[in-house]
Design a protein that fits this description.
The structure is a single chain. 41% of the residues lie in helices and 15% in strands. The protein is an alpha/beta fold and 244 residues long. It has one domain: Rossmann fold (3-Layer(aba) Sandwich), CATH 3.40.50. It has an 8-stranded mixed β-sheet with strand order 3-2-1-4-5-6-7-8, sandwiched between helices. Strand 7 and strand 8 form a beta hairpin.
Length: 244
């Protein structure tokens, strides 16, 4: 039976390219999108390239949609081999070149954490029984170097002045989830890692980013593959560890 992958936020950007690259490896990809119309367009594009992909509806902050999706995957496929927690947001009131910790609103903090952290925990916990049925389960959490407290506290770092607090804190929390979940699953067939894709030309990264989307997806895809067994409970970019 084909390996089954679920990629959240797969209708555009890194999620779309991750789905494309996994599909090119012969993996069946469930492309999760909260916008059905945009999801359908993305799926048809990859189907036209001969890839085995399928649209699944998912608003990641909806517990009911998470449970419905889990039931669908279980009934149709009986297992899940790869979970790429790609969906994420950065609010427009957090300009990259500023430090928002003095004035960030509680509503922006809550909304950012709802998408970037709480939804990932909820979805992953719900799907763990299916991942444990895989011969080589993989959980990839899309993080960012901006979530590295080592980098954020280093005055010599080129990222030191880039401090959108809600976004950075949500990714730091996500990294903590990676460390804890990997430890909890030690000795099982499921590996859990955080991926730093790099500064990529996406809606979030802007056109000023130096990396193309095709390269930004490579870290997630590598961590998703069965042969990538060297990393567990790590923060990775292009095959190299990133400091927490």
């Amino acid at each position: 039976m084909k390996r089954i992958a679920l990629v959240t936020g797969a209708n555009k950007g890194l999620g779309f390219e991750t789905a494309r690259q996994l599909g090119a490896k012969g993996i069946k990809v469930l492309m999760a999108s909260r916008d059905k119309s945009k999801g359908e367009t993305a799926v048809e594009k990859l189907k036209s390239e001969g890839l085995d992909v399928e649209l699944v509806q998912l608003e990641v902050t909806s517990n009911s949609e998470i449970k419905t999706l889990k039931g669908y995957i279980e009934s149709q496929y009986g297992k899940l081999d790869i979970l790429v927690n790609n969906a994420g947001i950065m609010h427009q009131d957090e300009p990259l070149g500023t430090n928002t910790s003095e004035n960030i609103s509680s509503s922006t903090l809550q909304n950012t954490f709802d998408v970037n952290f709480f939804s990932v925990v909820n979805l992953t916990q719900e799907l763990l029984p299916l991942l444990k049925k895989s011969d080589a389960g993989r959980v990839v959490n899309l993080s960012s170097i901006l979530g590295s407290n080592t980098v954020q506290s280093d005055t010599e770092s080129p990222y030191y002045s880039v401090k959108p607090f809600a976004y950075d804190a949500s990714k730091a929390a996500l990294n903590s989830f990676t460390v804890h979940l990997a430890a909890a699953l030690e000795g099982t067939n499921v590996n859990v890692n955080s991926a730093h894709p790099g500064w990529v030309k996406t809606d979030l990264g802007t056109d000023g980013a130096p990396m193309e989307v095709v390269d930004g997806a490579k870290t997630s895809v590598s961590l998703s593959l069965e042969e990538e067994t060297d990393f567990n409970g790590k923060f990775i970019h292009m095959g190299e560890e990133v400091a927490w």
